[in-house]
Design a protein that fits this description.
This protein folds into 2 domains: about 120 residues, no CATH class; about 35 residues. The longest helix has 30 residues. It has 3 helices and 6 strands, in the order E-H-E-E-E-H-E-E-H. Strands 1-4-6-5 form a 4-stranded mixed beta sheet, with helices on one face. Strands 2-3 form a two-stranded antiparallel sheet.
Length: about 160
Amino acid sequence: MNAQATISTRGTFDIIWGRLLSEGLYEEMSFRSGDWTCYAQAPASIAGRVDYRELANNHVLAKDDTVRAALDGIEKGDEVRIVGRLVDYDIDGMPMRKTSLVRDDTENGACETLFVESVSVIASHGKWWKRVRLFGRGLFLLSLTAIVVIMGLTILRPTAGRH
C-alpha cells in the first residue's frame, strides 16, 4: 500500500491490554517512554504475573489531519479504539521502519507501526486527574494575572506628597 500520511505530534503511544489492564497490574508498575521505545518495570511482588507481551510501543501514522487531531487529543488513561493497518514506512532520508507482526519479539524491531484510519476514545479513565490539572492551570493563570495587575497598580499609584 502506498499512501500519504501525516505523523501524529506524539508519534508513539505505549499501549497495554490483557491482565496488565484487567487485573490492574499496570498500577504497580513504572513506565517511561524513550525514542521509539516503551520501558516498563514491575516490582518483585508482581513480576511473575506480568506478561510483557501485553504492552506495546506503537508508532502511529494518521490517514489525514482529522485522524491526526484525534490521536493528538488522546491522554494518559484513555481507553481507545484504533482502526487501521500494520505498515512499514519510510520518511525521506531515513531508514525503513518495519512493523512487528508477532507478540514474542523484543527490543529493536518489536514495535508496531499503525496507519490509523480512525480513532475514538471509548472511556477516559483519568478524568479526575485531568480536572485537577485543568483547575491547577486555571489557578496558575489567575494568580499570574493578579500579580501583574497588583504590580501595575503599585507602579502607577500616585505617591503621597507629590504634586
